[in-house]
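Two entries, shown back to back:
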Amino acid sequence: MSGFRELIGHFLFPAGVNVLGALLKLKSVSFCLSVLCTPGLMAKQDPSTLEAGRTSQRAPVAQARQPHRIRVNEDVQKAKVVHLVSPVYPPITGKRLDGTVVLHVIVGQNGAVNSARYISGPTNLKESAVKAVLQWRYEPTLVNGAPIEVDTSVSVVFPHL
């Protein structure tokens, strides 16, 4: 047996490596491989359904979930406007009546504006901007042929009168 160890140590392992330890590691690796490669051992199925050494397992097909809503750049969404209502200036109150109101907008699957929330701009023009944008209509946005909601921004410009 000692000649066998010397032979293995001389040809397979560099000097200083524990031959017995290396053999134990090799044996544990081969055991793990035999467990992993045994058909039907890890499969959660009836062993009678296994064909000669082959499993009938198939990787589950990952179906991409259709997103509920996507974010679209303001300029891209602006190109899809099919009905635009201009804002009505509020009654003159002695305050400045020009500026840009920025709104956070959710466009429904049918292209109608579902919500318009004030982000920034002159507060005295906020209500007029929201009322106008809620009447806008867009061409529906499609993802894989199906309509989808859109999350976007809208800038409503009130020029100086």
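entry 2 starts here
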Amino acid sequence: MDCRVVGGGQAAIAERSSRGWRLDCEPSCRRLCTGTLYCPSVLRVEREHRFDASVEAGFAYITDPANWPEFWPGFVQMQPGSKWSAPGDESTIVVKLLGRDVELFMILSRLVPNEVVEYESSQPGLPDAHHERHFRPDGEGFRYRLVVEYEPRAGLRGLYDRFLVRRGVERALQQTVTNLESKLTA
């Protein structure tokens, strides 16, 4: 059976199993939901932009932690001992969030030069997230697609995650693109 989940937990078809309702969703959100037809789906926020720089220059600039303070919204600092050059590397950065310094822990899971970067993140008070950064040549420039996926938590925190966190992620992705626009010129 199949359910189409579109950013908010809309399950169309469910199959009853001995352990509860099995909702077969997209591969990124397979799960077993118990006793309900409601599936707390993974929310996916995307932003894509074309830059007038080569994909090699864009990838090198964006993936270099030394440049993060110039374009990462709210970036304060990278904690000592952080590494960010190969899958398995871990980094902790401090970002300003709602007027407070908050640590963001990240694990680099995939890095294909000039194509894609994927990492997982966690920070206190927010759901864990999966991040993707896609780089695609486009004529003399490149297309940069930013993706953030997270599963809203249960209960009232889920409302916060679905509405306020989502808006915050959308604003952060837009601000990232705006900041990069001034840095990535041909």
